[in-house]
Write a structure and sequence with these properties.
83% of the residues lie in helices and 0% in strands. It has helices at 3-26, 33-41, 49-57, 63-68, 71-81, 85-95, 101-129, 134-183, 188-198, 202-215, 220-231, 234-249, 253-282, 284-310. It is found in: Cell membrane.
């Protein structure tokens, strides 16, 4: 394969990307009069400025990419292929990314373009070697873009799962610290503030958001319920419901927190036992298919060699 064919393919890819960006920028819809006046006429949000600053800080360097790609028009097309915007927004909250749906669509589009580029590179190499028909080469390009699109979505699911595992591992310690703070005479809001500033981790960051919401005027049960809905963890949902019921009925909060921590520890112990049982079964695969045949060969081969010498 000549270097000219490779450079020609790369130049064609760059030209296609540039023409696509020009087409997307030309199709970007200009705001009408209602959309231009809406920011000045709609009611102002009552959320805390600390939360807005934190969300703006986590937005990342993709803001310029969103503006360059005219992403609102592209996101509507990508939404037909993937999950809806509402479900994606909940998954982003559960992952703790602090980014908008548009920014994730920009990342998804970037991964798809990189997959297309990788598929095109492989197709160019195969075309230079003349070892595949044109249909297979086109399928490789489409497969590369599809794999990039799916890989971005799967990476988000992996981040959600890892974050939930870390929060569940941190929850018993956090609940015990809250129980100690409440038993020492502090109120629920003060206990949350103390534990959030004295610990680190994913759950501590969520508790920091709860403290900010309480300082902005929200009630402690409402802020905890919002945190449980945002994270999507069942133990945290039970924890928020138990704290809300304890505050409404006057139940001793320290005992409730200790009971929640004990329940999470028992659930973690059961999950560990189930994982150990699955790993024990999985360990039989190398034993049966690798170690056992080699052992049989070592046991049988000397006998076969002796029989061959005898004959």
């Amino acid at each position: 394969m000549s270097p000219g064919a490779v450079w020609g393919g790369m130049a064609g890819l760059g030209l296609g990307a540039g023409l696509w960006l020009l087409w997307a920028a030309g199709r970007a819809r200009r705001p009408n009069l209602v959309e231009r006046l809406e920011p000045y006429l709609r009611p102002r949000t009552s959320a805390s400025g600390l939360l807005q600053e934190e969300a703006a800080r986590r937005a990342g360097p993709l803001r310029l990419l969103v503006q360059l790609m005219a992403l609102p028009a592209v996101a509507a097309r990508l939404e037909r292929l993937g999950s809806p915007a509402g479900s994606l927004c909940r998954r982003l909250d559960r992952a703790g990314r602090g980014e908008s749906v548009e920014h994730f669509r920009a990342r998804q589009l970037t991964w798809s373009v990189l997959g297309l580029a990788a598929g095109l590179g492989v197709a160019i190499l195969l075309a230079g070697a003349r070892s595949a028909p044109a249909v297979v080469l086109g399928a490789l390009v489409v497969l590369g873009g599809t794999l990039g699109y799916v890989a971005c979505d799967q990476s988000l699911a992996w981040r959600v799962r890892r974050r939930e595992e870390r929060m569940l591992a941190e929850f018993p310690t956090i609940a015990d610290l809250l129980a100690l703070a409440v038993a020492a005479g502090e109120g629920p809001a003060a206990a949350l503030d103390r534990v959030a500033h004295g610990t680190t981790g994913e759950l501590s960051r969520e508790l920091t958001g709860v403290v900010w919401a309480v300082r902005a005027g929200a009630a402690v049960p409402d802020a905890l319920s919002a945190m449980s809905a945002r994270t999507g963890c069942v133990p945290l949902s039970r924890f928020a419901d138990a704290v809300a019921v304890a505050l409404e009925r006057g139940t001793p909060l320290a005992g409730v927190l200790q009971a929640q921590a004990q329940d999470v520890r028992e659930a973690g112990r059961r999950a560990l036992m189930e994982s150990g049982g699955r790993r024990e079964i999985a360990m039989l695969v190398p034993v049966v298919f690798l170690i056992l045949p080699v052992t049989v060969m070592f046991a049988v081969f000397p006998s076969l060699a002796a029989l061959r010498v005898g004959f």
